[in-house]
């Protein structure tokens, strides 16, 4: 093999190896230990949901109203664990890259509260915007949808 081909192939091999390691690390960080998750829908047919955590949001939807294109706005969705065991939020995902969620990474004990904060960047967006945010947790069902809305206006065309 000549040196030219080798100098092209070697960096590609190194890049593939490094990208493979990164995804493994990301997967490990998002994994929940199995001993903290109690799934009542088992093959035994025992559906005891009474001991599960329950995530209860004060509001499931927030309307920012009219905002100017390019503005970044945020809202904190307050919730409480009204169940009987620790609430663990595994991940929070949004339907758009313009919507960035943040959430507690530690368990929320029964009776305690927490916040899922959603930041919406209206840059490049116009008109009515509605974005769903999915909260995945150890509740039954394991997903809860919260939503933000806004009417994005262009400052040059609005009076």
Account of the 3D structure:
With 159 residues, this protein is an alpha+beta fold. It folds into two domains: 3-31; 55-153, Immunoglobulins (Immunoglobulin-like, Sandwich). 17% of the residues lie in helices and 39% in strands. It is built from one helix and eight strands; from the N terminus they run αββββββββ. It has one helix at 3-29; strands at 55-57, 61-68, 72-81, 89-94, 99-102, 113-121, 127-137, 143-153. The protein has a four-stranded antiparallel sheet, with no helix packed on it. The protein starts with a helix and ends in a 6-residue tail after the last strand. Mean pLDDT is 82; it is low at 21-29.
Keywords:
single chain; 159 residues; alpha+beta; Immunoglobulin-like; 2 domains; four-stranded antiparallel sheet; four-stranded mixed sheet; 1 helix; 17% helix; 39% strand
Helix content: 10-25%
The largest sheet has its strands arranged as 1-3-6-5
The number of helical elements comes to 1
Number of domains: 2
Proportion of strand residues = 35-45%
């Amino acid at each position: 093999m000549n040196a030219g081909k080798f100098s092209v192939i070697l960096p590609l091999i190194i890049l593939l190896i490094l990208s493979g390691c990164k995804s493994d690390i990301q997967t490990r960080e998002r994994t929940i230990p199995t001993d903290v998750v109690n799934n009542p829908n088992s093959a035994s047919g025992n559906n005891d949901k009474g001991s599960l955590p329950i995530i209860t949001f004060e509001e499931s939807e927030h309307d920012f109203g009219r905002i100017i294109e390019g503005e970044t706005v945020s809202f904190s969705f307050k919730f409480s664990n009204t169940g009987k065991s620790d609430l663990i939020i595994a991940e929070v995902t949004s339907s758009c890259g313009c919507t960035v969620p943040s959430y507690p990474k530690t368990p929320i004990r029964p009776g305690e509260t927490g916040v899922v904060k959603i930041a919406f960047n209206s840059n490049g967006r116009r008109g009515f915007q509605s974005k769903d945010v999915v909260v995945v947790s150890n509740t039954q069902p394991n997903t809860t949808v919260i939503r933000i809305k806004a009417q994005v206006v262009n400052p040059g065309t609005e009076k």
